[in-house]
Specification:
The structure is a homodimer.
Chain A lengths: L11 H8 L4 E5 L4 H13 L5 E4 L18 H5 L2 E3 L2 H4 L5 E5 L10 E2 L1 H13 L4 E5 L8 H4 L4 E3 L12 H14 L7 E2 L11 H18 L8 H14 L4 H23 L1
Helix pairs in contact in A: 2-7, 5-7, 8-10
Chain lengths: ~270, ~270
């Protein structure tokens, strides 16, 4: 995440395929070109490519947007500028408007997750969708919101709910990406040069340890031996050891067990 | 969302209650004080308050962190500084390390959503958790990662997976907040001065419209009348009208229907 450029770049065509059907990101009257750059970075983090700018205050194209985009040039270079929100959404068939508050309007309000799934579903049936983001200082005007089909509101600490533009785009992009992402919830990746230990290897490790603990006297209290053995076995069961790690641990046991003898020899 | 300060501030005590059990956010050797400020803003957006800094390069406290935090002073003022990662996590019982890539280590990898739920579950059983974030340029060292119980990796465009520090904190905070959030997926909020129309009001609207359309001749083709009536009724059913809107629409129909007569009078 933070501060790490990926070393495994996909060909652009593949990234583009994953992003197909992504919503247009429409920044309405953005004030600072830097924020456009940071928003473009957030878009590309999640494969979104269709950036639209309504009357950007500092003009467009604008060189100041490029450094904060951290290399999201392809998004900035293909950005389109429109004089009004109505023109920017003209070709779209469903539009969400982001908002930090419920407006005094009768308009559906969706969470980012629900909106993302909805956009994914609509894209799969051939509809083009877009998401409006307001200017940094005040958000969207009510007239812009009235052009949208629904509001998109992120759950936020009600005592501190101001997100900057790039962060609002980030959350929406994240949910868009997640809506088609099949990353497993939790995995234990094993390096290629080893594999998870099997139970025979584990039992051999347990027996090796218990043999040495019998020898050195650690398990000498007969009534306590069964529970201590079970507790030790549970520790190593929980660790989900690889075959390589089982060998390392056997080396550790051997080395510790031989240490007094080694020392005597000295 | 973007650019909108909430007008409905919760008392701090209430925000604090919602945040109870939140993970410590540990920034390891952050390079720029501005980034610490932006990370604090992301934390407070989701009610996270426990900020820990390991050897911040520009020193601490640092005035440069405050403007980019957009008012998250309470997070910055209570931040604690540690000389090493080991000291920063000493009181914690479960630690995630954020990473943009799988390390050459045998370590569980979780998505932000899964990690957030896990932290919530652990907090509910009294465990203190923390999340490590690496420096802006290179992320966490492997020795820092080895102090963690598991890795936290966000699904990101593999062709452009570099998040800035505040954005990484934002995604994790968002998932933490979401893990206990009960915002409905989708709602249609109705202003207090009205209510959803009931079916009697709707049918009266339909019949008013159809009466006027019969009168003006729009429904004159007898075989087509039933399907046109059904289509028109479906349009207004879909709109989920309020009682106020039904009255507005009846006013619109009345006004349009009377218009030729009004004109004649002139």
């Amino acid at each position: 995440m933070a501060g790490t450029k990926s070393s495994r770049r996909l060909p652009k065509s593949q990234a583009r395929e994953k992003a197909a059907g992504g919503p247009a990101i429409i920044l309405v009257r953005p004030q600072l070109a830097e924020n456009i750059g940071m928003a473009a970075r957030s878009m590309l983090n999640f494969g979104l490519l269709d950036l639209r700018l309504v009357a950007p205050r500092e003009g467009w194209p604008n060189e100041k947007a490029f450094p904060p985009s951290s290399g999201a040039d392809e998004v900035l270079n293909s950005a389109r500028v429109y004089p009004t929100t109505a023109k920017a959404v003209a070709d779209l068939q469903f539009v969400y408007a982001t908002s930090a508050r419920v407006r005094d309007m009768v308009k559906t309000v969706a969470t980012p997750e629900t909106a993302a799934r909805d956009i994914r579903t609509q894209a799969n049936t051939g509809k083009k969708c877009g998401i409006l983001f307001g200017r940094e200082s005040k958000g969207l005007d009510n007239d812009d919101v009235a052009l949208a089909d629904a509001l998109l509101m992120a759950p936020l600490n009600p005592a501190f709910s101001s997100l900057n533009l790039a962060q609002a785009v980030l959350l929406v992009g994240y949910e868009w990406y997640r809506s088609a992402d099949n990353t497993p919830d939790k995995t234990l990746p094993i390096p290629k040069d080893t594999r998870p230990a099997n139970k025979e290897e584990l039992v051999q490790l347990f027996e090796h340890l218990e043999r040495e603990l019998d020898a050195c006297g650690f398990l000498r209290v007969k009534e306590k031996r069964p529970i201590m053995v079970r507790n030790l076995r549970n520790i190593f069961q929980r660790a989900q050891l690889t075959e390589q790690e089982v060998r390392t641990l056997r080396g550790v046991i051997k080395s510790l067990a031989e240490f007094p003898r080694n020392r005597k020899k000295e």
